[in-house]
Write a structure and sequence with these properties.
This protein is about 50% helix and about 10% strand. The chain is α/β, with parallel strands linked by helices. Among the domains are: about 5-35; about 45-60 and about 170-215 and about 225-260, no CATH class; about 395-545, no CATH class; about 550-650, no CATH class. The longest helix has 30 residues, at about 520-550. It starts with a helix and ends with a helix.
Length: about 725
């Protein structure tokens, strides 16, 4: 087929699809969608400009438009709302902003509510000018613990907030300059300053008194700092021209405009990444001389011949991120210290310049240990607020990371078997936990306690104690990044079957340990492999239980078994006989039936009376309230009934015949029923349902062989 023919056929098919869907798409319609009235209105709002007088009116009406960078960042987070919940008797606040509503959850943070709450509290204190606004905020933690993601979220959030009706901020441009100053007709403030900086220092107190009248401390407007060197030059020259008439100068030469923060346009959001020492230059932070303009203006100290385009300059009014901040050369650290403590920077050949921005850095543990041991860095340590960002230690939260990346939408052509992501997450969590000091507690049980499972001998206070005694928990172990890479590898290596299961991923995680760049200790590698073996055993129990439930999923049969159990239980507790439904004769309670069910949930012979009385009391209490007992409400009894029914039915289904090649039609029909239950109720596909049944069958076959060997001996 010729290329032109294939293109025509493709267009015809596309039109047919659109007709089927009832959609008529053409260029005009798409243009209308893009250029809607809404779009025009939004453009007008975001590109508002006006006079200084109009801006003063807006500040009086809405003082929030003149807030500091810290206050704006805190208000942005708070604007998305929050909710409280209690965990281990501690009240925790979850801030919805960290679910990434800006980008539909793309950079959502999971399982770090406590750490994020600390970060927001620091921002809140800085917003109300209690001290942290003079500090560098340092996110510290192991690789892959989402430090960069948090920084990216904050930058993205404050950029989006500046476009909303709640988060506007404004700057100014100088106009009508050519005739008076022989320079370009207009000059935007190079660092996007707050327009209130134009109010002369000697008049600020009076202005602020009028603006803040009747407002509390939280809503009060403050004017801190002065105009930048370039604006100072224009300000001074125009004041000379108007012989000190400030009002005339402002009316004729100042235009206020709305400021939209943008990382891509380098407006209000800066990012600095250290390079090697030979290529590093502090002018990257504070700006540099424009040598082409020196000839025009005659001096390299003329502010018009300077580019105020360093990262500190462009980040003014917003936020600057320092990637691996502690790898900075010492010369850079002096700029960082002054910027944080004094809110000033020192461009080459100019006086100190005022800035207003959040300084956020992040670093890994090795670099932070170097900082602690370096006595020359005491000044930086003293001006740093450190916030630990560890790995997640709660299984359900770790699973969310992988479900976000690997799901039916992102991986539509390969089915991910149930528990595949859960087992990968479980291994990751277990590598990060410290071995429990309590002799009666395994690391697997500890993980389950952290995940909300209750155990008879452990209270919430015990779990709090477990967390307190594990000082470095979450600061070591396998990163989510490694696990994501290995899940991706498993998907790529899929042999055309269209399904991956937990064993495939666990094997991939195991094989990758040989070449893991961050594991140099053979003992550590050995420990991680032992944990993998534990996870495999846990998966065996899970899949065996699911197959058991699928086999015994006949609700009618469970209901009948439960009724039989309750009749005999009632007769036993009340010391009565049971009427045989077939012979009509009174008989003693069936102790064998009672024990066969109770043993499935480890009720010891010595505790059977307590268990039976407790259950009868519960049933009696329900009867008094006019309610009937339902076995589904009692998780332990429900499990025991399922296991008993499975034991009774597994021989009739002959599950172990799955490991052989010959299965009769009747048995196959029963197996198909079980398989369909796995698919319908537990999320299996045809492939992984067969795998699960085959695997569980092999376990039972192995058990039968062991049992046979014991009988022979």
């Amino acid at each position: 087929m010729k290329t032109g023919d294939s293109h025509r056929n493709g267009r015809v098919q596309l039109r047919q699809i659109r007709r089927i869907k009832g959609v008529t798409m053409n260029g005009k319609r798409l243009m209308d969608v893009i250029n809607s009235a809404d779009f025009d209105r939004q453009y007008a709002e975001l590109n508002w400009n006006g006079t200084f007088e109009e801006y003063l009116d807006m500040v009086i009406e809405r003082p929030a438009i003149a807030r500091t960078a810290f206050r704006r960042l805190y208000d942005m987070i708070a604007s998305y709302g929050s909710y409280n919940y209690t965990e281990y008797k501690k009240q925790i606040t979850h801030f919805k902003f960290f679910d990434d509503p800006v980008d539909h959850g793309r950079d959502a943070i999971f399982g770090l509510d406590v750490q994020l709450m600390k970060l927001v509290n620091v921002l809140k204190a800085a917003a109300f000018r209690y001290g942290p606004e003079k500090r560098v905020l340092l996110l510290h933690g192991p690789v892959g613990s989402s430090k960069s993601t948090i920084a990216r979220l904050l930058k993205k959030g404050v950029e989006s907030y500046s476009k909303t009706p709640e988060g506007p901020l404004y700057t100014y441009s100088w106009t009508n300059l050519r005739e008076i100053l022989r320079m370009d007709e207009t000059m935007p403030c190079p660092i996007h300053e707050e327009p209130l900086h134009l109010v002369p220092p000697e008049r600020r107190e009076t202005v602020l008194k009028s603006i803040n009248e009747g407002r509390d401390h939280g809503e009060a407007v403050h004017i801190e700092g002065d105009v930048c060197p370039a604006c100072r030059y224009v300000f001074r020259e125009l004041m000379n021209h108007y012989r000190g008439n400030w009002e005339m100068m402002i009316k004729n030469h100042i235009q206020i405009k709305r400021l939209i923060l943008s990382e891509r346009d380098r407006i209000g959001i800066g990012t600095f990444q250290p390079k090697d020492e030979k290529n590093q230059d502090s002018t990257e932070l504070t700006g540099d001389i424009n040598y082409r303009k020196i000839a025009e203006y005659g001096s390299d100290s003329d502010p018009r011949a300077f580019n105020f385009d360093g990262e500190f300059n462009v980040a003014n009014r917003g936020i600057i991120e320092f990637i691996e901040v502690l790898k900075l050369d010492v010369a850079f650290l002096y700029d960082l210290l002054t910027a944080s403590q004094e809110h000033k920077i020192k461009p080459k050949k100019f006086a100190q310049t005022d800035i207003d921005e959040v300084i956020l850095g992040h670093t890994n543990e090795p670099e932070y240990r170097k900082l602690q041991s370096n006595e020359f860095m005491e000044a930086l340590r003293d001006r740093t607020v450190k916030i630990d960002i560890p790995y997640i230690t709660k299984l359900s939260e770790e699973i969310k990371i992988y479900e976000k990346d690997f799901n039916a939408h992102s991986v539509p052509h390969i089915h991910i078997a149930p528990h595949t992501l859960e087992m990968a997450a479980m291994w990751g969590i277990l590598t990060r936990l410290e071995e429990p000091k309590k002799a009666n507690l395994t690391i697997m049980q500890k993980m389950k306690l952290y995940n909300g499972k209750t155990m008879a001998q452990f209270t919430e206070d015990n779990i709090k104690e477990l967390r307190k005694e594990a000082i470095r928990e979450g600061m070591d172990g396998i990163s989510p990044r490694y696990i994501q890479d290995k899940i991706s590898q498993s998907l790529v290596l899929d042999k055309g079957e269209g399904c991956i299961n937990p064993f495939i991923v666990l094997n991939e995680l195991d094989s990758g340990l040989k070449t893991h760049s961050l594991i140099n200790d053979e003992e550590q590698r050995k420990r991680y492999r032992e944990i993998l073996a534990e996870v495999r055993r846990e998966y065996e129990d899970i899949v065996k239980h699911e197959v058991q439930r699928a086999v015994s999923a006949d609700e009618g049969a469970i209901q009948k078994l439960c009724g039989n159990y309750i009749d005999n239980l009632k007769a036993y507790v009340q010391r009565e006989n049971v009427r045989n439904p077939f012979t009509g004769a009174d008989e003693e309670p069936d102790e064998r039936l009672l024990r066969s069910i109770e043993e499935k949930i480890d009720i010891a012979e010595s505790r059977k009376d307590d268990f039976r009385r407790e259950l009868m009391n519960y049933i009696g209490a329900l009867a008094i309230e006019g309610k009937s007992f339902d076995f589904r409400t009692n998780e332990r009894l429900h499990k025991a009934l399922e296991l008993k029914l499975f034991e009774d039915q597994k021989d009739t289904i002959k599950l172990t015949t799955l490991v052989s090649n010959v299965v009769d039609r009747e048995t196959q029909a029963k197996i198909d029923i079980v398989k369909n239950r796995l698919i319908k109720n537990y999320g299996y596909c045809e492939i992984c349902a067969n795998d699960a049944l085959g695997f569980v069958a092999s376990i039972f076959a192995r058990g039968d062989i062991v049992k046979s060997d014991k009988e022979k001996h």
